Structures
1.
Amino acid sequence: MNKEFYDNERVIDLNEQKDLHLREKKVSLARIVIFLGMVASFGVGYDYYREGYWGGAILLLIFIRFVSYHDEIKNRQKFLTSRLNVLNSYIVRARGTWRKRSQDGSCYLKNDRPQDTDLYIFGEGSIFQYICAARTKRGRDRLAESLSPIPPKDFNAIRIRQNGVAELLQRPRLSLDLEAFARLMKNDHDTTGLLKAVEEPLKQSTKFLYVRFLPFPIFVIQCFLTYQGILSPLLLPFVPLFSISLALILFRYTSEILKPLETLSKELKLYQAIFERIESTDFNSKSLKNIRDALTGDVSAAQNLKYLSLLVQIVNTTKNPFVYLLFNAMFLMDFFSAAAFLSWRKTAANHLRQWIDAWSEMEVLISFASIGQTRSNYCFPKLLDGDKPRINKSFDCRQKRRTKQRGFTRLHDDYNRCEYVRQNYMDSHSCQFGTFSLRGRACLCRKFFCQSNGDFYFNSCQR
């Protein structure tokens, strides 16, 4: 573990936190002063000079900008807090006190797969508990699948993933930033409901949304005719009242269209920040290039989520009763929001699953990279093609100790690096070992409990 790097990062983040705290106090004070000045300016315009209204309007715009800037400071503070938590999790794992981590993967244990507990793959004190950096449910499911003791038929997928992990080890800040953004999400965040809601076709007709173009031009024409004296001013409220009535009558239909947005509001900005970080990085390994290409294919994931995030903000704003009545009276905002979301679904919704899967794969790579980021000694296995077992002769091979127990072979090894190979003719099963295995699966280097239909294993070790 590069302890100096993580200590420096922690000091930098703590110093920035202090700076942001002081800046937040200044901005809060400035907001109060500007707000009081704005109220006073409007008061002067109302009582004495109309020019006061102009000063109040200018101060209102300045106040809105300060509110936005204050939100940016708060968001940055949240990110730095999350990043410090990530740094602390690395330090905890390096110190050996990681067994207190809540996510141990016990839900992935299977009764018909004893290797899960015998090889400490899942459960308390397992490799899953040690390396898991996934925050989403899909990411954890993908990580659990990659830790399966059943070896794959093709080693190329493992080699490609190894290259991705190796590159992430050369980009520790990227891993820190991505994991920090992910930690701001709800624990075990699940996008299954959103994907299902977005991908299934609408059962209702959407032709009623074309009505949204009528109220505003009719209201403008009515105002012009009233100004010319052709219509009575008493008729001016007619169009706004009609628009509000129409929005209320069709509220159930517009809410059904916008329902998927309710399941993903806060997370949208986080996904947007994550995708922007990945899209702006020039990767070298094939696995990381594939992830970036999945996000920047036909359409940009970050840009489309930015548009969707803005739409969600508008929808959430209209939940205020006063804003709802005002926006729908003037523009039928519910109809425009529903139409905008339908347009987004046509262009980008088909790619949403691909984007989410790309991030799940990135979570897996970050999890595996945490081994190299928290340990001084680590290595990548060299996978040899072919069915016939072979021993790397550069290793100092020695058999430590084996005992028979209920038809199984129990193997013990205290060395830092170890692997299991077959002595006689064996099937395609393989045993786990240290930081790598004959079939490319990573696990803790402790004592193991291996079985393969009565066949015989021995261990090859090197200090």
2.
Amino acid sequence: MDITRGRSRLSGMDIVCFICITLFTLACLLPIVLVVVVSFTDESYLVKEGYSFFPRELSIAAYEKVFSTNPMRADRYFLGNQLLNSYIVTILLTLVGTIVSVLITSMAAYSLSNKQLRFRNGFAFYFVITMLINTGVVPWYMINRALGLRNNFAALVVPSLFSPFNMMLVRNYMNGLPEALRESARIDGANDFVICFRIILPLSIAVLATITLFYGLGFWNNWFNAIMLVDEDSLYPLQYYLMVIKSQATALNELKKLGITDTNIVLPSESLKMATVVVTIGPIVLLYPFLQKYFIQGIVVGGVKG
């Protein structure tokens, strides 16, 4: 900007940049608006007319299906509602899993960034190998079964507790911190736990906030652990429960097309997809603004240091 007599004046390039940023913002917001609108659109109108920002026929049938309560099994769920039960399971899963994961990851990263640790590069290579080679689902499932991770809350948390990628990101960030900090702390008599939790981790807030967002999103959106290790519907996380609802609606509509069912009710298949997105995306979106100022810094610095 040009400063003239204490006032700021926009140049032509500034105006062009503002216009481009505004158009880009609208391009990001319009799909979200369309998802919300379609979730309130009547299913028969969607079948005939397709998606529209201004539908002529509205309906809340998709949300009625999402928030419906099964009276025959109400005693199994919190306040008798499966959706609320799944919300509570997912919130607990995200909180517990994220806290424990960040703690384990940061401690592992601190150990591998400690230059006094013998064979630390060999240990780091061991973690990198797990990122390159996947043994498959069957060994993964057998190990979890042997550990007793079946039809319990731990089965949703433990298999996703650690990410080698996040650990390497934190380790690279810590490698960039001055080694003199650790040496001076050791001279003063501090042990590794004091150095880690009182010196290194407070200086690594940016990258810790980044992996907190990664782990939080991962646990919030995780449905694979549930489909593989959980049969009890009272333990269904939100994403898996909504996937079950959508699959049931799609299957019933397909049966109706084949003439196997004689019901005249049109289940909200397309609008149900959008309603599940609206129901699940809200809480996790509120988390991002609090971590935004650390996110880019943690990714960039943690990705290039070391």
3.
Amino acid sequence: MSCRSNVAPSTLEVDLVEGGIVVRYLDGREVFYHGPPAAVEEAVTTPPGKDVHVLVTDPDGIEGVMTYVNDLKTDAGILESTGVGRIVLDRGERTELFPGVTVAAEGYSIRVAADPSVVDGRVFVFAEDEFDERAYELVDRTDAAVVDGANEAETNARIEPETNGGSEPETNGTEGTDAAGESEPNDPSDQPAEGP
């Protein structure tokens, strides 16, 4: 598909907070994925053309591994320094990302499936672009019914629609700038690719 290579992920700190999920990269930066994630029974097919990130955590959601699926923008060195992995699939290709978690390239969409009897933890899928971000948690059938009821009640109570420009780090009001006021990237995928 591309000259981009697969990169193995490292274990990262994760914090499940009200309103989303914080992932701490190895380089000390954080990214916030807006939520709460919608509960989906065992598999989700993302909208076409979205950047897809899969996060598999331990059962308590304290640590996990993050993998970008079909990311062609981010240099392998940047991914390695942050601890984020990458898998590149050809159309129609399917592979096991982690025990019990498979990913498949279906046209311009990505399908992520989880077998709850095998996965020892939680599986989150984020599908985003510059216009919106969608968050899902893959759960087994019995958990989906319970969580769906809670999500429906929360959605009905919400006054404003969800608007979200993608994942961004927590920066305490200095979003996108360092201490000297220089612009800095929010996400490893914002980094320009190095080399040809």
4.
Amino acid sequence: MQGDSAAVNQTTDCDTKAFLLDNPYGFIEDLRLVNRPHQKITKDDRELYIGLMSGTSMDALDAVLADFRQDKPVVVGSVSEPLPSRLRTQLLSLCHPGDNELERLCRADLEWARLAATVVKKLLNDSETPACLVRAIGSHGQTIRHLPALGTSIQTGDPNLIAEQTGIATVADFRRRDMAAGGEGAPLAPAFHEAMFRQPSLSRVLVNIGGIANITVLPGAQERPVTGFDTGPGNTLLDGWCFRHKRLPYDAGGNWAATATPDAALLQALLSDPFFALSPPRSTGREYFHLGWLDAALARIGKEGLAAATVQATLVELTACTLAQAIETYAPDCQQVYLCGGGVFNHRLVARIRARLPGCHIADTGALGLDPRWVEATAFAWLARRACLGQPGNLPAVTNATGFRVLGGVYPGRHPCP
């Protein structure tokens, strides 16, 4: 910390010499001024942003502190905080219609934001980073309803409260501007995947296995556009079924699934769902793929009494099969597949993906320099930076929006530098 101490002794008036952001849209000249007016800041050449992500698995809130000085961001700090069981229960209940939804939504909105602020403070403390050096937080929030047919998507986590409690400008509500322009609002990570992982002359596919699985197709030919879409269930059914029958939040390593053989009739019944026949762009969520959907399929084929482990093995096969089919159909020349998200640690699932894609080199994104646990959170740090710079964050070829759009609203911070 000796170098940091030296830097602290060299301060500049934030009113006169701030880190100006190149912002052609002009809505904010300088987020450092907005964050912390009338203060001294250190001469620090890092370009720091925080990304917050809680995906459809609803298991944890992931946070990264990323430095964007170089062409590609470097993660300099990370935290993963399990969602408190009470909050998780509230959020899960909000994914489906129920009584007193508005008040329950308000409570969850505030509770998630308080948790986010606590996680940000822990991240800054662990990385020994003053809040005044962070230009903005990109907060995805927690999706509770994703309804592209209606043109809307709802995420909890009040960004006003996050900005107030951390003192850092917060960018949030990323999806709805894309949807206002006719897009699906998802997936949003492909723009980041392109910036981070695209390589000339190499045909790659990025696979994110969260609660919902999605792919980003990165063609080797630069004239071909990047595409991407949700393929279907990732971990959400696996985790839900495991909790129902084992009272465990997930099947560690896929070991339980590995004890059984998939049921061909059930797999075929699941694959017959119309979602899997839709052409991209397409997106989905746990409001569509949930245990009620699975129960209905079991009842339809008269297999309600199927052994629980057999169902778990079939759900692994469903995720592997739908991912592989999507890659074979929309990236037939794929040479390399890189995995990220919690599904990377389900060894049985990864083994089944490998078996279904024998012609592809398959690894996780750690081989490309970014830990698979932090790809999604880093994407939202990147999206926050894009918003602050007035640069678009969507890819119309992915979401079907009518054009490129700057995503997210900016909520100014307030606290002075510690």
